[in-house]
Structure formats: structure tokens, C-alpha cells
Amino acid sequence: MPFRAPVADFRFLLDHVVGFGQVAATDRFAEATPDTVEAILAGAGKLCEDVMAPVNRAGDQQGARLENGVVRTSPGYAEAYQQIAEGGWVALSAPVEHGGMGLPMTLTTCVNDMMSAACLGLQLNPLMTQGQIEALEHHAPDWMRALYLPKLISGEWCGTMNLTEPQAGSDVGALRTRAEDNGDGSHAITGQKIYISWGDNDFSGNVCHLVLARLPDGGEGTKGISLFMVPKYIPDAEGNPGRANSLKVVSLEHKMGLHGSPTAVMQYDGATGWLIGGPHRGMAAMFTMMNNARLGVGVQGIGVAEGAYQHALAYALDRKQGRPMAGDTGTIIDHPDVRRMLAVMKAETFAARAIALANAVALDMARATGDEEWATRAALLTPITKAYGTETGIAVASMGIQVHGGMGFIEETGAAQYLRDVRVTAIYEGTNGIQAMDLVGRKMIDNGEAAFRMLQEVQDGAEAARAQMPDLAGDVWTAAEAMREAVETAVGQSLKDRYAGAVAFLQAFALVLGAHFHLRAAVAEGGKGPRTALARVFVRRVLTRQPGLLAEAREGAGALYDLSPDDLAA
Question: Cβ of 276: how many Cβ atoms within 10 Å?
């Protein structure tokens, strides 16, 4: 499906909204010059437009399949992946000493956004590898980093993460996969894993699985879990793929969407694996990969929102129906409700994208400076990015179908694919409910101090903009103050009450941040122009949801538990 990479939007956000200049000013990321940024964005945009977008529809219509134990990928995927790998797009933020470019995660986030918009099914493959690269960089022994990182960074090999089992979904501590010492520095891994994205393919030289398993002396729950590298092919003495390991793809899931991405049931029968991060320390290592993936999955939602918006806009500019009340195009874009939908779609996508890029900036600044306050900010923004980014993708894709009217329900238009593909992003890498509970739980362990600092920044920005745009600035300041009070209330609630209102709390927080970034964009534009008009749409039409969300967050768990399971079943 046609796609236009929003390169100008990324440049504007980096230059004027999310503070990327701070990152480029550090010694660690000094090579992220304006010329480099321009070249990265332009090159990625061309790849997405010319290589990835053309295979998106084929991936939906002719999904991956399992033939005699071999995974066959969708038409055009292998060729497109080779261009991703050869162009170095897996390696933007990977360590230089192993062949990566060492560029900021913020730039990788921009690229992943565009790739998700162009072809989410294929983009999921390098995203998983990027997460594995980070986990190995931080937790693997030297020999493993030297062997695996160059191959993963070059794209010659691909990476996966294996957490979920039939009885162990969000409750990872219930896993049963076991690991037994082989006596030679390796372990025998036995068990079954499900929902393994890109569990195999027919275009990379090796598939490297990070597998959570329990050693014989591993206790119950997550504290007894270890992490292992279990490759499809065991590397030989020269580091090349050697004999096949004792693992296989049992089946591929029949899914609602993302047909081009093979989601495998993996069976390990005494497969050879090597320990990462020390015995019983698997979750610490895996969380490095999961946190990387949570930012990445939030960005997947945002990218799909962009693709769905562009698809709906093109239809609205072409479709003639009824008598428009305003405008002169003669198409449905001049109907007020269609204009409303398109404006809200664009405004929410901008807000979610700004939050994700601000999250990436905080990660880069934490890495470049070692400042704990930046790390705390990144941790606070991660669940918001993941949940709001994916919910925005779902909402925008659904609205895109509505813009198409009856034709949106017809598969031939392609509008439905965006919604079917993006729907899982609110589920995998930690459901959005879990993200919300993480926000009001672990991320509020400081009694809300990190949240208060961020809200103070929002209010300071609103105060600075009052003279130029008093109406918008006043609304943003008021929303931030309401959020401050909500944080104070949440800190004083029991954990059960916090969790009951967590999803609403997170959404309300995201709307405040989205309004803040829209206001920054309007100020940078001078208070007059399309970005200012878009900010007004967000503040006047989207931010107005916040009071209802905060009322729900304050309500707690009471009424929910007044209904017994029998009452719910009646």
C-alpha cells in the first residue's frame, strides 16, 4: 500500500519539541549531527516507501506458513529484509565495537516508527533482534558477545525472546521449561514456548533464541528463573552455523492479523543453550530486552496509526459522496464529521509520537550522562509510551475504517488490515493493563516524585506560553494541575484501588503529556499555522476526556468487587 514517510514531522519534533539537541550535545552522541540525522531519516524514509510498503499487502494476504517443518515467509519479505540488513538498519544504536553505529535510540525510534507504518509484519523481525542485542550487550559473557553480536548487528542472524508458555502468560514465574547442566559449560533446555514472534524464517543464517528456563535449584516464581542463548544452529569453531540444535517449530498460530509475521510454538528437546547473566538472574536480563521492546511496541502502534491515517486521508480526498457543507474539494473530506475524524487521528498520532521520542531522548541522556534522574524519567515514560502508543494505533486504525464507511469493512480496500495488525500491540510485551499497573505501582514507589517533576515541566511550559496563547496554555496548565492532584490521590490509595483505576490514570497522564508537546509545537511555529491548529484540536477535543478518566481513576476498586463472579455471570 502507498506510504509517505513523515520525515518532516520527525525533523520538527527532534528540533523543536522533544529536546534532541541535548542528546546530540553529549560526547557519547556527538556524531548525531544535523547532517547525519537528515541522512538517516531520508534513507529510512526511502527504504520504507520503496521497499517495505510494497510488501505489506502481500504479507497480509499470503502469510507465513509451515511446510514440512520449514517456515516459508511471505512474498517479497526475504528480499526486503536483505535490504534492511544490508542498509545497516538493524544496527543504528548497536555498539560500535561489534559493528553497530552507536547512534542514539531516538533515531532508531524514528526509523522503527516509519518501518511499522510501512510494514508492521516485517518490522517486528528487526525489532526483536534489536532487543536481543541490548540484552546481550548488558548481560552476556564476553565470548558470547564476541560471537553473536556482530552477526545479529549485521542482520545475518535474527533474534527472538521466549517467555510465554501455555500455563505461564503474564505470570512468567509459572514457567516449567527446565535447564540441566551438561557439564561442559552448556545446558540442556527442555520445554515448550508459545507466541514466539519470528520463531523462524527462511532468509537468515541463524535464529538465536533467548529462552527463560529454570535450573534444578531454581526456586519458585520469577526469582528462580535463568536466561539462556539457544541458537537454531550451533556455531562451529569459526563462528558459522553448524549442526542443527534440538529445537523445532511445532506450529504457527492462525491469527487475527500480522499474518506476515510467523508466530511460533517452539519445542525444545534437550536443546543446547548457554547461560546469560548468571544463575537465577534471567528476569533481570530479560527485562532489558522487554523494556527496549516496550518502547518499540509503543512505536509500532504509532507507526500503524500513521499508515492508517494516510490511507484514510487518501480515500477522503478521492471519495465523492453527498453534499459537503464546507470546502470546495467535492469529496468527503469537506464533511464536518470526516474532517473531525481525520484531525483527531492526526492530533493523537502526533501526541503519541512526541511522547515516544521524549522517552527515547530520556534513555539516550541516561546512557550518555549517567544521570539517575534521566533514567527515572525514561522508566516513568516507558509504560505510558507503550500503552498510549498502542491504544492510539488501535483507535486511529478503527477510525480509519469509519472514514472509509462501508468500504472500510471490505477487505479489498486494505483499511481493515491496519486494525487487525495493530490490535495485538496492546497485548504483547506486557498488556496495557500491566503497563498501567506498573505506572501506578513500581513507578510511584518514589511517592510520585518523578511524576511531579514532569508535571512541573508541563506547567512551566504552559506559563511561558500564556502571553502568546492564553487559551491553550491555560487549559494545559489546568490539566497538569488536575493530574498532580491525581498523583497525590493515587499515592495515598491501596494498591488494589490504584490498580482498579490504573488504565484510566495512565490515559489521563498521556493526554497531559500530549497536550504539552502540542503546545510546544505551536509555540515553535509562532502560534499561527497548521501545527497550532492541530494543537487546538488536541487540547479542545482530546484533552477534554481527562476529567472523566480521572474520575474513574479516583473511584478505586469498590464497585468492581461489589459484583461477584456469580453476579457477572447472571
Answer: 22
Burial of 552: CB neighbours in 10 Å, binned 0-12, 13-18, 19+: middle
| H or E, element range at 496 | helix 495-500
3-state secondary structure 157-192: EEEEEECCECCECCCHHHCCCEEEECCCCCEEEEEE
pLDDT tens for each residue of 442-482: 999 999 999 999 999 999 999 999 999 999 999 999 999 99
Classify each residue of 483-511 as buried b or exposed e, where b means 16 or more C-beta atoms within 10 Å of its C-beta.
Answer: bbebbebbbebeeebbbbbbbbbbbbbbb
Write the pLDDT tens digit of every residue in 41-86.
Answer: 999 999 999 999 999 999 999 999 999 999 999 999 999 999 999 9
The question of whether 220 is a catalytic residue gets the answer no
Q: Is 327 helix (H, G, I), strand (E, B) or coil?
A: coil
pLDDT tens sequence across 268-312:
999 999 999 989 988 888 777 777 789 999 999 999 999 999 999
Domain identity same for 122 and 229: no
- What are 189's strand-pairing partners? 179, 271
Closest CA to 517 of 356, 364, 376: 356
Buried b (16+ CB within 10 A) or exposed e, 82-119: eebbeebbbbbbbbeebebbbbbbbbbbbbbbbbbbbb
189-210 average pLDDT score: 97
DSSP H or E stretch at residue 368: helix 336-369
Domain boundary among the residues 111, 142, 173 is at 142
What is the residue type of 412? E
Question: Quick one: 287 exposed, middle or buried, by C-beta within 10 A (0-12, 13-18, 19+)?
Answer: middle
Which is the catalytic residue, given 429, 457, 463, 525? 429
Q: Which of 343, 380, 341 is closest to 358 using CA atoms?
A: 380
- CA pair distance 383, 455, nearest whole angstrom: 16
Through-space distance between the first and last CA atoms of the chain, rounded to whole angstroms: 46
Q: Based on the domain organization, do 125 and 180 belong to the same domain?
A: no
CATH number of the CATH domain containing 239: 2.40.110.20
For the record, the C-alpha cell of 504 comes out as 484510566
